[in-house]
Amino acid sequence: MKVAILTDSNSGITQKQGEEAGIHVIPMPFMMGGETYYEDITLTQDEFYEKLEEGVDISTSQPSPADLMDVWNKLLEEYDEVVHIPMSSGLSSSCQTAMMLAEDYEGKVFVVNNQRISVTLRESALEAKRMADAGMSGSAIKEKLEETKMESTIYITLDTLEYLKKGGRITPAAALLGSFLRIKPVLTIQGEKLDAFAKARTTKQAKTMMITAAKKDMEERFGDPKGIRTSIAVVHSHNEAAALEFKQELEEIFPETGEIYVDHLSLSISCHIGPGALAITCTKKLEL
């Protein structure tokens, strides 16, 4: 049985990377200045941040049902089943839309609701491909990914509160006070939602908070305090130099974890938090 693995560009997997890994990637649409752009197709990372810093109104969307079904139909010409892993259902309605559409595909399309985003979603897609290559069915892959959905963690520190204010996630007064006090909020994604976690005064303090929180999760939730069975990554929004420095720090703290992956945050998150963000993600390696 041939099983296709499909995710969206919220995973951070580019079209080229997807081709190399044998994973199919749907580009997420963005609305800017009355026009629709597609991540990694007609919209690059640099172009996105240029428009963001110019103050252009940017809103996120989801693939249209017609576009999504067109992708599934084409894949089913070559594959027996499709495992579709969209971004977290708590962050977008694209997962619920896909689940509804899949009902008409007579058990050939399996939509995974494992509440991942960015690098943790990338890990899910890579693990799904590994399971498909091992001969597992679409149903079994979906079950395994949803069973382990809470075995990942993300902590993010922001450089500015401006974009949270713009999106209505905090009040203008709170944003102004935060900027005046030079507060660097630390946010977390644990499954469904992007939530406040802590407040730091400096980037150094924020990184210490994130590392401490990640270590606690790895020890108490993953049962892996040394990170031997955990994939650790650093992700950022237009902040690569800081990300590479953070990677070096983490390599000293977790010498047994192996290569620490560095990537951009998906644009759907960056749209709401702005440039300069820095994050650590931890995902427990899946055991077959």
- Global morphology: globular
The average pLDDT value, as a whole number, equals 88
Low-confidence stretches: 168-178
Strand numbers in spatial order across the main sheet: 10-9-8-13-11-12
Structural class determined from secondary elements? alpha/beta
Distance between the termini: 18 Å
Helix content: 40-55%
Radius of gyration: 19 Å
Total strands? 13
The portion of residues forming beta strands comes to: 15-25%
Largest sheet: 6 strands, mixed
Compressed to H and E, one letter per element, the order equals EHEEEHEHEHEHHEHHEEHEHEHE
Number of helical stretches of at least 4 residues: 11
Can you give a write-up of this model?
About 5% of the residues have low confidence. Helix 5 packs antiparallel against helix 6. The chain has a 6-stranded mixed beta sheet, sandwiched between helices. The radius of gyration is 19 Å and the shape is globular. The protein is built from 11 helices and 13 strands. By secondary structure, it is an alpha/beta fold. Helix 4 links the parallel strand 6 and strand 7.
